[in-house]
Write a structure and sequence with these properties.
This protein is an all-alpha fold and about 290 residues long. Helix content is about 80%, strand content about 0%. The chain has 2 domains: about 160 residues, Orthogonal Bundle (Tetracycline Repressor, domain 2), CATH 1.10.357; about 130 residues, Four Helix Bundle (Hemerythrin (Met), subunit A), CATH 1.20.120.
């Protein structure tokens, strides 16, 4: 049951969003946030992201049942009944997450948390995924809102560093997800979802990933010009360099295994970027 609930609420994605939001809170210039604010931010982001993830599975049960990667999800297997009561629970989680953020943090942070969930659940899942290859480009903005939510706890007016990091997250999502889509090309093609590799082919999609990641890494360096130091720069360049290396391998050989290597490299890149940003701030601006 615990494993199925974790699957339903996409706990791993929620944790990534929570960590991203907290990292943004730490690196945003201004009066340092209290520990309880960081905890409240992490919990409210996790609740909102979990509600969006569950809605994604509720809405996409028909697609999930036809794809190898998702056919073991609980609404497909019948582990959880595809009942409208789930929609009520999903809405309740969203309200608790957004309302809790508004009460404990501030209204701007709550708005960004809501927009993050809305972009994933509605913009991506309902409006775009089955219609256009731009689905993950536009819908991927949900990750950017996690950055903005964390920053808004410290400074609702937003300073350059969190804005740049939000752009980095916006660019990270296509490179991350298109790598997975290349590996899962047949699944998406079989169900008629127009992910980029299905539309233009794996080779062209791999080149698009490389070009996007080049832009991502270039922009990820910019916070150095607004106060972050060499520790952050080391994390940005080492993680970004490794991701580009895996992208180049994928351009030469866009096979499923190499594409999955690129997918996991994107996670390493993001972790290094966030960890070294936090270390930079903590060591030089404690």
């Amino acid at each position: 049951m615990v494993k199925q609930l974790s699957n339903l609420f996409k706990l791993r994605i929620g944790i990534i969003m929570s960590v991203t939001a907290v990292a943004a809170l730490v690196v945003t210039p201004g009066q340092p946030a209290q520990a309880w604010e960081a905890v409240a931010l992490a919990i409210t982001v996790l609740l909102a992201a979990g509600s969006a993830g569950a809605f994604n599975q509720y809405y996409e049960r028909d697609l999930d049942g036809r794809m190898r990667r998702t056919r073991n999800r609980p609404f497909v297997t019948g582990e959880f009944s595809h009942s409208r009561w789930w929609l009520l629970l999903i809405l309740l989680l969203l309200l608790i997450g957004v309302g809790g953020a508004g009460f404990a943090l501030n209204g701007v942070a709550a708005l960004y948390i809501f927009l993050g969930a809305f972009f994933y659940a509605v913009v991506y899942t309902v409006w775009l995924k089955r219609r256009t290859w731009l689905n993950i480009v536009i819908g991927g903005a949900s990750g950017s809102f996690a950055v903005l939510a964390g920053a808004a706890v410290v400074d609702p007016s937003l300073s350059p560093i969190p804005i740049i990091l939000a752009i980095v997250l916006f660019l990270w999502t296509p490179s991350h997800f298109w790598s997975l889509a290349i590996a899962q090309h047949k699944d998406y093609a079989d169900v008629g979802v127009p992910m980029l590799p299905v539309v233009v082919g794996d080779q062209a999609a791999a080149k698009a990933v490389l070009g996007n990641t080049l832009l991502l890494v270039s922009i990820s360096i910019l916070p150095v010009f607004f106060g972050l130091g060499w520790i952050y720069l080391f994390g940005a360049l080492s993680g970004g360099g490794y991701f580009l290396y895996r992208n180049l391998q994928m351009v030469r050989d866009p096979s499923p295994q190499v594409a999955m290597d690129s997918f996991f490299a994107s996670l390493i890149q993001l972790v290094l970027l966030l960890v070294f940003a936090v270390l930079d701030v903590q060591l030089f601006n404690p």
